[in-house]
Design goal:
Layout: H1 3-11, H2 30-42, E1 50-54, H3 60-67, E2 72-77, H4 80-92, E3 98-101, H5 109-113, E4 118-121, H6 134-143, E5 146-152, H7 156-163, E6 168-180, E7 190-201
Parallel strand pairs: 1-2, 1-4, 2-3, 4-5
Antiparallel strand pairs: 5-7, 6-7
Helix pairs in contact: 1-2, 2-3
Bound molecules: S-adenosyl-L-homocysteine.
S-adenosyl-L-homocysteine binds at residues 23-28, 55-58, 60-61, 76-79, 82, 103-105, 122, 124.
Length: 202
């Protein structure tokens, strides 16, 4: 599958119907999701691999990983109604995904997910609840040796020191997350947020 083909398929997926600002439910824009997944695939981290999407939301990263040939994809989210949308999206894209309703902060969540080869995630950035991204890093390092995560631009040094002793930053790829007006406190129709795709290996 080509990059623009993947992007188009992901673009057509259903988004959040009633997004929660507390859970920072922003959908990854299709070009950014496709870029992360394509890059991971070129590095050999998707095809034939068991992948986990932590905080899957409507499933864009999980579905993209499945379309690029992952052997199994587990998609985890705390929000039940959102998982229903993700299920419909997976059906629409004709891919099989194991959905798990769980809180990444719960210490039993990693064992419920089981060992994976790669985590892909766009966790909450911590704009509503400070440090909301930390349990995502903890859970991802507990289940997989490779993590592709989307973070606010400038997160590199925090992420590097937070994972020290458990993993190392292998790559940082700059990108832009386009967020359509989602909440009443958003002023602009579309906001372009500079982000970093950070790749951690342990
Ligand atoms: N990965 C999706 C959604 C990103 S928004 C995408 O790329 O489009 C962040 C997601 O994390 C939301 O769906 C939210 O419900 C989920 N989330 C927030 N806190 C969580 C927690 N503690 N445990 C599991 N999921 C959580």
């Amino acid at each position: 599958m080509k990059l623009n083909q993947l992007e188009r398929l992901l673009e057509n997926l259903e988004g959040f119907s009633d997004p929660s600002s507390l859970l920072e439910q922003y959908r990854t824009s299709a070009p950014l999701a496709a870029r992360l997944l394509f890059h991971a695939a070129l590095k050999g981290d998707i095809e034939g691999r068991r992948i986990c999407d932590l905080g899957c939301g409507t499933g864009i990263l999980a579905i993209g990983a499945a379309l690029l040939g992952a052997c199994e994809v587990v998609a985890v989210d705390i929000d039940t109604p959102v998982l229903e949308i993700a299920r419909r999206n997976a059906e629409h894209a004709r891919v099989d995904i194991l959905f798990l309703n769980a809180d990444v902060k719960d210490p039993v969540t990693p064992s419920r997910i089981g060992a994976c080869d790669t985590v892909v995630m766009n966790p909450p950035f911590g704009a509503q609840q400070p440090h909301a991204d930390r349990p995502f890093l903890d859970a991802s390092l507990a289940i997989a040796p490779v993590v592709y995560g989307i973070f606010n631009a400038g997160s590199r040094s925090f992420v590097g020191s937070y994972v020290a002793g458990r993993g190392e930053i292998d790559e940082v790829i700059g990108g832009v997350l386009s967020i359509k007006r989602t909440f009443s406190f958003h002023r602009d129709e579309v906001r372009e947020i500079p982000v970093e795709i950070i790749v951690i290996r342990s």
